[in-house]
Design goal:
Two copies of one chain form a homodimer. By secondary structure, chain A is of the alpha+beta class. Among the domains of chain A are: about 90 residues, Nucleic acid-binding proteins (OB fold (Dihydrolipoamide Acetyltransferase, E2P)), CATH 2.40.50.140; about 180 residues, Bira Bifunctional Protein, Domain 2 (BirA Bifunctional Protein, domain 2, 2-Layer Sandwich), CATH 3.30.930. Chain A contains 14 helices and 18 strands. In chain A, helix 9 packs antiparallel against helix 10 and helix 9 packs across helix 11.
């Protein structure tokens, strides 16, 4: 008898099958035991009836602790109350390893996330992280399929780089033989070289920021997808970002139904991605935020009143703050695109808006529900002289950026793209509280273990 | 008129279309110019006829250098000699940037790879690297599809790790705030935690080895795919490796025909992956190599005689050498699986063969044509006591490996997997000479630039 997967059990209704996996939990005692049995593909209830199995089997099933590894056989019967539609009546039980002191308790009212992250290698077996990380896996494959189907060439940017793209203060420096190197903060500059070679490319890999911020919103190591397209201008970049976010969210809604149920995710707000994303300029958004500030201040909800105080705290011309992004999410209730920020708050490579050179042709996508910016991108400065001015203004060492300037010397064309942080996206889709839960082994200023 | 892609031109036969891209090359002079026009999706010949265009257009077309960026319009006509089946009769020409001093010459008889890698950001536009990297993109998507279709969960292992898996001498150490961390050499140990949570997972990301070897066969940064499966034993691991290699190679043969033509790749040897891969134990292989050594020594081919001298140089009980792998490839002419190596030459986590504990239940896959090992893997030691002995023998610090030992404390089961280096695989499939050509921006002991 070959073994079957829990997720396939429904196809074996009425059959006796072999299952291989672990005891997730157990209840019952006297004459009837109910094992929650997991094998990674799903969890099924296994009923152990004292009258149907030899006494030693019943005693073993009663004794072993959670996460004992087992090979069992049993009859698959219908169970309309379970998500799978089936349960299993135990026939035989083989214990590979009997466990008694598994360090994670299933029923912790207020989970201590730091304590759980200390045993992340075990915690990933639990229902919630299991569901979140299955969604992450689907999100990443959806992203890869989205670009592959559209003819983008996957273009892996290097991790070791000679210089900074997003600011030297958050660079990880690595001793590199007799020299030194830096861990990439973004593959974009390399992606631009790729776009000029392949027309449209996508970079997708881990990126690194030595974030000293202790807000716990940040990871030092996170995955980013960065498409870059030759001859694509701001409107097209916004179209691409919107289409990609919609594709990914719809695919999770379609293929991760059970996981979203486990997470008790309210999917109504996710389903709103089907509607067009509002596109609002930074300048227009200032007015919107003014109105929201007044509206929230007058609210009877003390949370909103509190939020109101922090709206537009940064002042005109500055980047938006976390409260602004939260307010935008509350107002529009779906992803919002904010375009044309003041050039002063954006990176050196962003293209000036010909209509008003104090602003750049950029776009941020803000996810609702307090998640904030999930995408940042825009058109790149394709004019060599204007780009050089910015390189000088930002005091970027010429010898480290000279190769990049070659892209403007030899066949420069309008182009652009964006970067989406995978963990932020997963955090939003799953509704998990901490971005640290959206990656298998999160790395922060405090943690490189396990 | 919307612009079209070169790769779609055949659909527009008889139409006047707009193309956006770059001049790749030009020949002709007097009355007829032939531009090779590329847009990343392909290259098409554009005919500029003096009698059909205004004089200034002809003069411009005659003057501009390679990699000038252009927007052109022209009539799509049939051309049976071209791979695309079409060429374009130029009507209008708009020069975005006129280039005259593009640093790469198209026709270099003996390309100087080091010089070309200095301008890798431009070299990726050239025919050969363009084709190799398109194959790489297909290989990576094929790998992702292979595992996704089989229900594997993508499980991103961390890049920052607390300790070494493959040997401390090749670790990159990174100052990490007040502490230090190490760049991952393999995601396997984390993948094992994932397999116990999800049943079957795949890790796929960059890995790092501070290889001081100057053989140029090594990269300091390379991508590795590492499936890991609970309850999978050696035979199943070999089945999975064989099936995956076959899937990837067949998919490239099917979808990258034009790229393989550009690379003048002899695909006959690739097509042999359809046949079963020989599975030979290390001990049996010693006999095979003895015979090959004698056979090659008696050959009339001086290359084989030379190779013969290096066969079995390492002696019984040692790992195979490069000459051994080359000989194996020459003999079998397709990927070969060598299993059950002496435990002394393999990593601490490999499971002992119960039939002979001097050997481990491992497998290496050797690609032919001198490429050598592309896959290494096997069953992991699932017995806590036996594993502890190896940890002690290898003097692995307990505090850095303790979390991993938890996987043997709490529900240990038989399991295994393997790692395949993407660049080696791409090198073999494309037949490129240097592994450095198989990644967009190769990193070696000498190079972190551009």
């Amino acid at each position: 008898m070959g073994s079957v997967q829990v997720s396939d059990l429904k196809k074996h209704l009425g059959e006796t099958v072999e299952l291989r996996g672990w005891q997730y939990n157990r209840r019952g005692s006297g004459k009837l035991l109910f094992l929650q049995f997991r094998d990674g593909s799903g969890t099924v209830q296994v009923v152990v009836s004292k009258k149907d199995v030899p006494e030693d089997v019943f005693e073993t099933a009663k004794r072993i602790g959670n996460e004992s590894s087992l090979i069992i056989t049993g009859l698959v019967t219908e169970d309309t109350r379970s998500a799978l539609g089936v349960e299993v009546q135990l026939k035989t039980l083989r214990v590979l390893q009997e466990v008694h002191d598994y360090p994670i308790q299933i029923t912790e009212d207020v989970p201590n996330i730091d304590k759980l992250l200390d045993v992340r290698h075990l915690w990933v077996r639990s229902r919630t992280p299991h569901a979140i990380l299955r969604v992450r896996s689907e999100v990443e494959q959806a992203i890869r399929d989205f670009y592959y189907q559209r003819g983008f060439v996957l273009f892996d940017a290097p991790i070791f780089t000679p210089a900074s793209c997003e600011g030297a203060s958050t660079l990880f420096e690595v001793p590199y033989f007799e020299d030194k190197a830096y861990l990439t903060q973004s593959g974009q500059l390399y992606g631009e070289a790729g776009a000029f070679a392949f027309g449209k490319i996508v970079v997708f890999g881990p990126t690194f920021r030595a974030e000293k911020s202790k807000t716990r919103r940040h990871l030092t190591e996170f995955w980013m997808v960065e498409p870059e397209v030759a001859f694509l201008e701001l409107d097209g970049i916004m179209d691409l970002a919107e289409e990609q976010v919609r594709y990914v969210v719809c695919r999770v809604l379609e293929r991760c139904k059970e996981d979203l149920k486990v997470l008790e995710r309210n999917t109504a707000i996710l389903e709103k991605v089907a509607e067009p994303f509002p596109r609002v300029s930074y300048s227009e958004m200032q007015d919107v935020l003014q109105k929201l500030k007044a509206e929230f201040a007058a609210s009877s909800d003390p949370e909103l009143v509190k939020l109101s105080a922090d709206i537009l705290k940064n002042g005109l011309g500055d980047d938006l703050g976390a409260a602004d992004e939260t307010a935008v999410g509350l107002h529009y209730k779906r992803p919002v695109m904010i375009h044309r920020y003041p050039s002063a708050v954006k990176a050196f490579y962003m293209k000036r808006d010909p209509a008003n050179p104090d602003y750049v042709l950029c776009v941020d996508v803000i996810a609702p529900e307090g998640v904030g910016e999930v995408i940042g991108g825009g058109q790149r400065e394709d004019n060599m002289d204007l780009l050089m001015k910015q390189v000088e203004k930002h005091a970027i060492p010429l010898q480290s950026i000279n190769w990049y300037l070659d892209l403007r010397r030899y066949g420069s064309v309008p182009h652009g793209g964006f970067g989406m942080g995978v963990e932020r996206c997963v955090q939003w889709i799953t509704g998990c509280q901490h971005v640290r839960e959206a990656i298998p082994f999160p790395r922060t200023i405090y943690r490189t273990n396990p």
